[in-house]
Specification:
CATH class: Alpha Beta
Strand content: 15-25%
Largest sheet: 8 strands, parallel
CATH architecture: Alpha-Beta Barrel
Bound molecules: flavin mononucleotide
Order of helices and strands: EEEHEEEHEHEEEHEHEEEEEHEHEHH
Mean pLDDT: 96
Length: 306
């Protein structure tokens, strides 16, 4: 029997595969494809404190090997999430990660404290790619803003905090170091890459918001490199995200140094993708002669044996 469990900040995940925030809903439709209880962890689409609409349409544009989205995180707000979504997530079995986004330091504190007090989450993930409304740029793009947001959430909650980092920075591994110093218990990387498309029929930007986030296999080599470059700079675990479509991709991220992986865009292509990734990793671990999946973590950093 292969031991597929991994540990993130003292929380044991039955296996290292989870959805990436915003790409998988726990609802009747998805439960029809495979039981979400098979996942290593569950996560919601990021919630804000107050209800808000998303960006104007069109919000999705297909690109070679991926997609651009400018959904803009429509949110039903904290209150409705606590009443309706969180109990369903909690009832399914796997550890629950609640993804939050604050527009100000006070919102990070309020959200983190409320999730903590709900007693229904195991970890909190900070979507640091949302804008700091007081300063007009995204939290994850500035070391000081990043450190302040992470510290605010860490102080407000007893639960472990995961910092989800943006690749739209000079050096994401340095941002991981900043998040670690501010008290994060894990980092997840990467969120989407900033991009755009132009509709040549209308001769205007294709997305209603003009820019969008590029995701899917197109970003995988860059996301993988982010994990590889960060692994030896921090002590806290990394959740690897970016273009994972198959178990082979997931194994690459584990070898690069990720303790767990999240599948995003591929869930729209194949709603059973995560189940295939879990089973495929287990088969690989067994064929390679290991007894536990955690033996793979970071192996690509070891010097080549003769
Ligand atoms: C339609 C869509 C919605 C997303 N919504 C969120 C979100 O609410 N919060 C978040 O942290 N990331 C969000 N993301 C980013 C994903 O969680 C993930 O970081 C990104 O898609 C890269 O992984 P992938 O290439 O496997 O899709 C979203 C991505 C997509 C495609």
């Amino acid at each position: 029997m292969i031991d597929m469990s991994v540990e993130i900040a003292g929380v044991t995940l039955p296996n290292p595969v989870m959805p990436a925030s915003g790409t998988y809903e726990v609802d009747d439709l998805h439960e029809g494809f495979f039981p979400p209880s098979e996942l290593g962890a569950l996560i919601n689409k990021t919630i804000f404190l107050h209800p808000r609409p998303g960006n104007p349409p069109p919000r999705i544009w297909e690109t070679p090997c991926g997609m651009l989205n400018s959904i803009g995180i429509p949110s039903e707000g904290l209150h409705k999430f606590l009443e309706e979504k969180l109990p369903r997530l909690r009832s399914l079995g796997p550890p629950v990660i609640v993804s939050i986004a604050g527009n100000s330091l006070q919102e990070w504190r309020d959200l983190a404290a409320a999730i903590d007090e709900s007693g229904s989450a195991d970890m909190i993930e900070l979507d640091l790619s949302c804008p700091n409304l007081e300063q007009g740029f995204i939290w994850a793009s500035d070391p000081q803003a990043l450190a302040e947001a992470v510290a605010a959430a860490v102080e407000a909650a007893k639960l472990p905090v995961i910092s989800k980092l943006s690749p739209n920075v000079r050096d994401i591994s340095e941002m991981a170091v900043v998040a670690e110093r501010a008290g994060t218990a894990a980092v997840s990387m990467v969120n989407s890459y900033l991009g755009m498309a132009i509709d040549i029929r209308t001769r205007r930007p294709a997305l209603g918001n003009i820019t969008g986030g590029l995701t899917g296999p197109a970003i995988r080599p860059m996301a993988l490199y982010s994990v590889f470059a960060t692994f030896q700079k921090i002590q806290v675990p990394i959740i690897g995200i970016g273009g994972i479509a198959t178990w082979r991709d997931a194994v690459e991220f584990l070898l690069a140094g990720a303790t767990a992986v999240a599948v995003g865009t591929q869930n729209f292509v194949d709603p059973t993708a995560m189940r295939k990734v879990i089973n495929g990793i287990a088969g690989y671990v067994e064929r390679a002669g290991f007894s536990a999946v955690r033996e793979l973590i970071g192996l690509a950093h070891q010097p080549q044996s003769a």
